[in-house]
What does this fold into?
Amino acid sequence: MDLATILGAVIGTITVMVVMILSGSLLMYWDFMSLLIVLGGAAAATMMRWPLNVFLGGVKVGMGALFNNVESSEELIDKIIDLANKARKESILSLEKEVIENPLLAKGVRLAVDGAAPEIIDEILSDDMRVMKKNLADGAAIYDDMGESCPAFGMIGTVIGLIVIMANLADPSKIGPGLAVALVTTLYGAMMANMFFIPIAKKLKYRSREHLTNCLIIKTGVLGILNGINPKLIQQRLETYLGKESSGEE
It folds into this structure.
């Protein structure tokens, strides 16, 4: 579980709720119709921009960013060096029974054990990298779109509320509560955008850089093992990825 994301969401929500409680009743800030127009409208507008399968996949990717940590590059390098040492001492076939949790590393090692040519392994792993990069980029863009749409639909809800108020000017008792509901919609739009959707989009962009760095480490490591390069030289090469951000270039 990604602790920073969970803590950020919890602390932000609690902070706003405490301020609401101290300023009056918490129920004063609750309005189902306001929530519906913000979330429903933002989701509908975002779905219109994307194919349905991409939209649903992007939402799933975002949830993964909330609850899943990316394997650290240092741990990944250590695992690859262990595999390189074993392959050098015994043979690359000795890696066949190795238990490898990282699916991309497991795929690369399996291809190497099966005798695939280096250029074939390079091509397959590079294709996987491109797919992963696209999925994460789509997910980030979808959450960016949701964050962009929420304040707009908050304003739409506010305008609707003001129209209702204007239609009931003859009854002053309805103006105050009506105005409060109208402003709550703007509040929901700002909160949803800035406390949830935009931060998740930023986290996905960061996760993308982490994943691509790990993919480059895996590809370089597997090809190094296959070519029989000294494990120390492989380690030196892999550690160069730790000092720079991946650009996704191969």
